[in-house]
Amino acid sequence: MSVTSRYREAWEGFWREAPQETGAVFWDAEPALTAGRHLALFEPQLTDPALPLLDVGCGNGTQTRFLADRFPHVIGVDLSAAAVDHARRADPAGQAAYRLLDAAEKDEAQTLHAELGDANVYVRGVLHQCEPDDRQPLVDSLATLAGERGRVFLVELSEAAGAVLRGLATGPSGPPAKLAPVLRHGIAPGEVADAAVPDHLRAAGLTVLASGELPLVTTEYTEDGTRIELPSVWLVAGRRA
After folding, report:
1. What does residue 192 show for φ and ψ, rounded to 5 degrees?
2. 8 Å CB contact between 201 and 208
3. Are 238 and 207 in contact (CB under 8 A)?
4. For position 169, what pLDDT does the model report?
5. What is the rounded CA–CA span in Å between residue 174 and residue 153?
């Protein structure tokens, strides 16, 4: 597999310990503040909304279930078996499907594309969590999954988010309660240069069709009660007709 065993084990350990309830995880903000905002940017760029929609790095599936209310065939995929278990337990009605996928592994992406055909792809905050050597293979897989007709919506923490997170982690009171488990399991976010994100997409053969900035909302608050939001960039990419 592409990812290191340490990286996979870190995510398995995190999701095994994570509470089941929605909003207990640092990035598990309500969809109205996350995927809902992103859809307003993503949907106008879709050439075919009826294509399968893949939520890559779905975690416990909060955003996946929201997307499943709006698209006919939604699949949440994640590297972690424990995350997929969380998502399935949280979706007893089966609004969406969930499955394991190492999105940095070329063969797995090709196999899924052969099964589903072209897909629209939603990716929130995954690239910066990858090991540096896995970032281009991950984006290459996103391009494989999108094929000729699909679109990729990629939202990533901007460079400015690194300073915000370091400040939270090293504050006098220690990291906020929901950030602490992330750091404890060794999932400290890596920094991706803002200019590197479109470069990865172009290297995968995709054209950036739209881009902008939008804060990434978390479920945590500062001591004065202010919701923590992290600077982020978003891009929509696909193959030109």
Report:
1. -115, 125
2. yes
3. yes
4. 81
5. 34
Take residue 124 and report the two structure tokens written for it: 């929130």
- Model confidence pTM above 0.85: yes
Q: What is the 3-state secondary structure (H, E, C) of the chain?
A: CCCCHHHHHHHHHHHHHCCCCCCCCCCCCCHHHCHHHHHHHHHHHCCCCCCCEEEECCCCCHHHHHHHCCCCCEEEEECCHHHHHHHHHCCCCCCCEEEECCCCCHHHHHHHHHHHCCCEEEEECCHHHCCHHHHHHHHHHHHHHHCCCCEEEEEEECHHHHHHHHHHHCCCCCCCCCCHHHHHCCCCCCCCCCCHHHHHHHHCCCEEEEEEECCEEEEEECCCCCEEEECEEEEEEECCC
Residue 29 CB-half CA count within 13 A? 21
> Could you give the CA distance from residue 158 to residue 66 in angstroms, rounded to a whole number?
25
Average pLDDT, the chain: 92
Q: What percent of the chain lies above the pLDDT cut of 90?
A: 72
In the block, tokens 């890596």 appear at: 190
Q: What is the pLDDT of residues 51-76, one digit of tens each?
A: 999 999 999 999 999 999 999 999 99
